[in-house]
Write a structure and sequence with these properties.
- With 195 residues, the protein is an alpha/beta fold.
- It has one domain (4-46, 61-192): Rossmann fold (3-Layer(aba) Sandwich).
- The protein contains 6 helices and 7 strands.
- It has helices at 17-31, 63-74, 91-100, 136-141, 146-159, 179-192; strands spanning 4-9, 35-40, 77-83, 107-113, 116-119, 124-131, 161-169.
- The mean pLDDT is 95.
């Protein structure tokens, strides 16, 4: 069954492995009949700084952030391709979440459940395509999958989006010969199946 899929290339540069994988996913998903919206972080223009201590006087959202919210509301499946830098996501990508996921738009503070606001983006699934130089075993054992925990529980899960899969590509800076093609094929297969 065809799905509406929003793909965010979360690398701040116009060319990257994240960009390559986002395009591979989009091409395969489109060829399989899914409806696709592909956005590149490098093309979004907005102030990444939330800039205030609370939600009472937030900055008006720039048109690109309004579009991010519209795309999240539109989609049934969200795909985020991002590098891991210094154990976290790029600052500009974090700025998207800091600025766009606001009360009344992504969660409802008027309806609390177990001390947490009700999520407003429920019923959606997500996949993260993560590039890093950190091996998967080290990411799990030494870093306790902290970036993936943040994405799964504190960002996506907080607004109701269920992270159903992670594809981790490492080492990304100097991959072994043939690895990028292998990763691209794997990502394309996921796109064709909307996974």
């Amino acid at each position: 069954m065809a799905q509406r899929i929003y793909i965010l290339d979360g690398h701040p540069a116009p060319t990257s492995l994240s960009n390559t994988f986002a395009k591979a996913y989009a091409e395969a998903a489109r060829a399989a009949g899914h409806e696709i919206r592909l956005v590149h972080l490098s093309s979004l223009h907005f102030d990444i700084d939330f800039g205030v201590a609370g939600y009472q006087q937030t900055k008006p959202l720039e048109p690109d952030l309004e579009q991010v919210l519209e795309d999240l509301a539109w989609c049934e499946h969200f795909v985020l391709a991002t590098p891991m830098w210094w154990g976290g996501m790029p600052a500009k990508l974090k700025g998207v979440f800091d600025r766009a996921l606001l009360p009344g738009r992504a969660f409802d503070t008027r309806s609390m459940h177990f001390g947490l606001p009700a999520p407003l983006l429920g019923g959606r699934t997500a996949r993260v395509i993560l590039t890093s130089d950190t091996p998967g075993w080290f990411l799990r054992l030494a870093y306790k999958n902290s970036l993936l925990w943040q994405l799964r529980r504190q960002i996506l899960g907080f607004v109701g989006i269920k992270l159903t899969g992670v594809t981790h590509c490492s080492p990304a800076t100097e991959p072994k010969p043939g690895m990028v093609d292998r990763w691209r094929a794997e990502v394309g297969n996921l796109g064709a199946r909307a996974r």
